[in-house]
C-alpha cells in the first residue's frame, strides 16, 4: 500500500471530470520508490509493468533507464526520449526476451541496442542479421520462486532464460560471431524472499566465473515484492539489506574477474504498483442466495490480475453523496463481463471469496488499490470494452496521460469484406 495519502475528493474529482472506470497514478509514490532503489549503480525499469509514455518519461527524468521485451516497448522507450546505442555509458534501452521477431531484430540493428539474450538461438540470429553488439545473458539457474506459479521464471518448467549448463556454449557461439557476453542477468520470479535470493547470488557468482575478464555488468533482475494487504504495510522489503546481499556478491565477483563490475536492478512492479488505483462505479447491488454482490463498471478487461493469479487488492468505497459509511457487510465484487471469472474478490485457482466492505449504493465509487503494475498494461478489448483513461495525479492536479478509447478506435483496423 502506498504511504502517500490521497483524499477521497481526488477520486471524486477524477470521476466527475473523466468518467469511470479510470486509472489514477500518484507521482509522489513513484518518486519515493525510485529513491529507495537508487542505492544500486543502475536502476532499469521493467516497463512491461506499465508502459504509458508519461510514466516512461517520468522514469527517464528520475534517472532510470529501461528494459524492453518487445518491438513495441522499444518504440515506446524511443518515443519517451530514451536513446539507443551501446558504448562506454550504461545502455538506456536493453532488449530482453527469449526470442526475436522481425520487428525487434530490425529495431535492435537500427538503434544499436544492447541485448539480454534469453535463448542460445538468439545469438546466431543476431549474427545472421548482421548485428554485432554487446550481449547480456539471462541465466536460468535451474530453480525458481514467485508469489504465483505463473510468476515463477526459473527452473526446468520455465521458458525463460538460458539454462545454466549452456553458458559456456553461448560464450563460444558469441565469440565465433565476433561478439562478447559482457553482462549477466538473473531473475527467478516475482516476490522472491531473501532465502531464495541468497541462492540466486551464489548462482550468479558461479556464472560470472565462466565469463571472466569480459564481464562488465551483473543484474539482480526484478521481482522485488510489494505488500498488497493493508496489514502487511509495515513488512516492506528492506531494500538496503537486499542491496547489501547483491553488493557482497558483486565484490566477490570483482575479486574473481580482477576489475570493477556495475550492479543493476530491474524493478517493474516495485516502482509502479503502489502508485496505481482503478476507480470504478457500482452499477448494481444484488442478492444471489445468501451472497451480496457489488457489480462495477470495470472488469478483468481492465484489471486481470485477480482472475489470472487470484491476486489480492485492497478495496475502498466512496459514497457519491458523502454519507458516512460506517455499516459493513460481506460482499463479492464482480465486473460487467459475460464471464463467471469476472470477479475481483477471488483466490488463485478461481475460488470466489467475499470481502467485508461498507454497505454501498448504486453510483458509489469502488476503488481497487495498488494496481499500477500489470493493470492497464494487461487490459484488453474483450467484449468490445473500451480501454479506460489513465490519469496522473501530480502536485494536486489531475492530468490525462491516455485518453479513454473510443468505439471508432476499437474498430479502426477491422475490415468488412464481401463474402
Description of the structure:
This protein is of the alpha/beta class and 419 residues long. The chain is built from 12 helices and 20 strands. Strands 1, 11, 12, 13, 14, 17, 18, 19 and 20 form a 9-stranded mixed sheet that branches. Strands 2-3-4-5-6-8-9-10 form an 8-stranded parallel beta barrel, surrounded by 6 helices. Helix 3 links the parallel strand 2 (42-46) and strand 3 (65-68).
Helix proportion of residues, in percent?
Answer: 25-40%
Radius of gyration, in angstroms, nearest whole number = 23 Å
Q: What is the number of helical segments per DSSP (H or I, 4+ residues)? A: 12
- Judged by helices, strands and strand pairing, the structural class is alpha/beta
What best-fitting shape do the alpha-carbon axes yield? globular
Main β-sheet: number of strands, strand sense, barrel status? Answer: 9 strands, mixed
Can you tell me the residue ranges where pLDDT is under 50 for at least 5 consecutive residues? 145-154
Calculate the terminal CA-CA distance, rounded to whole Å.
53 Å
DSSP strand count? 20
In round numbers, the mean pLDDT is 92
**β content, as a range?**
15-25%
Amino acid at each position: 500500500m502506498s504511504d502517500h495519502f490521497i483524499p477521497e475528493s481526488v477520486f471524486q474529482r477524477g470521476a466527475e471530470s473523466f468518467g469511470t472506470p479510470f486509472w489514477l497514478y500518484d507521482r509522489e509514490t513513484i518518486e519515493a520508490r525510485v529513491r529507495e532503489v537508487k542505492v544500486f549503480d543502475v536502476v532499469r525499469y521493467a516497463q512491461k509493468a506499465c508502459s504509458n509514455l508519461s510514466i516512461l518519461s517520468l522514469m527517464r527524468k528520475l534517472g532510470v533507464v529501461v528494459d524492453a521485451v518487445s518491438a513495441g516497448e522499444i518504440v515506446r522507450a524511443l518515443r519517451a526520449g530514451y536513446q539507443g546505442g551501446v558504448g562506454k555509458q550504461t545502455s538506456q534501452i536493453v532488449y530482453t526476451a527469449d526470442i526475436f521477431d522481425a520487428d525487434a531484430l530490425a529495431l535492435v540493428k537500427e538503434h544499436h541496442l544492447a541485448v539480454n539474450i534469453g535463448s542460445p538461438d538468439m545469438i546466431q540470429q543476431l549474427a545472421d542479421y548482421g548485428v554485432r553488439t554487446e550481449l547480456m545473458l539471462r541465466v536460468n539457474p535451474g530453480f525458481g520462486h514467485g508469489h504465483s506459479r505463473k510468476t515463477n521464471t526459473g527452473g526446468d518448467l520455465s521458458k525463460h532464460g538460458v539454462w545454466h549448463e549452456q553458458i559456456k556454449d553461448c560464450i563460444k557461439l558469441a565469440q565465433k560471431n565476433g561478439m562478447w557476453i559482457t553482462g549477466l542477468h538473473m531473475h527467478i520470479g516475482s516476490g522472491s524472499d531473501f532465502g531464495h535470493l541468497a541462492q540466486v547470488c551464489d548462482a550468479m557468482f558461479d556464472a560470472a566465473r565462466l565469463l571472466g575478464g569480459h564481464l562488465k555488468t551483473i543484474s539482480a533482475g526484478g521481482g522485488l515484492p510489494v505488500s498488497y494487504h493493508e496489514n502487511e504495510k509495515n513488512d516492506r522489503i528492506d531494500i538496503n539489506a537486499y542491496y547489501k546481499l547483491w553488493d557482497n556478491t558483486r565484490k566477490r565477483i570483482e575479486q574473481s574477474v580482477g576489475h570493477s563490475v556495475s550492479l543493476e536492478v530491474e524493478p517493474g512492479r516495485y516502482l509502479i504498483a503502489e502508485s496505481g488505483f482503478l476507480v470504478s462505479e457500482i452499477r448494481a447491488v444484488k442478492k444471489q442466495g445468501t451472497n451480496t454482490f457489488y457489480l462495477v463498471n470495470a472488469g478483468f478487461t481492465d484489471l486481470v490480475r485477480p482472475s489470472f493469479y487470484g491476486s489480492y487488492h485492497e478495496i475502498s468505497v466512496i459514497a457519491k453523496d458523502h454519507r458516512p459509511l460506517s455499516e459493513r457487510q460481506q460482499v463479492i465484487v464482480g465486473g460487467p463481463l459475460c464471464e463467471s471469472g469476472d470477479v475481483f474478490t477471488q483466490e488463485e485457482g478461481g475460488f470466489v471469496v467475499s470481502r467485508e466492505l461498507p454497505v454501498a449504493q448504486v453510483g458509489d465509487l469502488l476503488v481497487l488499490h495498488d494496481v499500477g503494475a500489470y493493470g492497464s498494461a494487461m487490459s484488453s478489448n474483450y467484449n468490445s470494452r473500451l480501454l479506460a483513461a489513465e490519469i496522473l495525479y501530480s502536485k494536486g492536479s489531475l492530468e490525462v496521460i491516455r485518453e479513454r478509447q473510443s468505439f471508432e478506435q476499437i474498430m479502426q483496423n477491422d475490415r468488412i469484406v464481401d463474402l
